Amino acid sequence: MTPANGARRPDLAVVVPTFNERDRLDALLEGIFNAVDKHRITAQVIVVDDNSDDGTGERAEEWAARGRVRVVHRSAKLGLGSAVMDGFAVADSDIVGVMDADLSHPPELLPLLYTTLIGRELDVVVASRYIPGAGTRH
To answer: For FRET with 62, which of 24, 25, 38, 55 sits at 20 to 30 Å CA-CA?
Structure first.
């Protein structure tokens, strides 16, 4: 399926559920696009905002006006699971992922996850802080 705007389908769609994440949104989106652009992976980010009262949805719309970001506005704080599903429903790629907006997921891992998925013809890849050598900072 071709995206509604007629552009080439992105290689990857990343769903970012948000609730009051305005202060982190720029850093996250810059990190995602820097990581994928460096590896020549085309990406779409879908911000699914649960009616944030801090301006997250409006800031996401500013990104959407520049392209590569799509925003789904929801009427209330409806929960993470349904936000992910709502984002998947509007994705323009067959390969979809999810990242938290709080910067706890490093965007620089996206190219590795993507190339592992397609290079090995897998159905799913998961990054985990619980595998040997992984962890959390701060």
So the answer is: 38
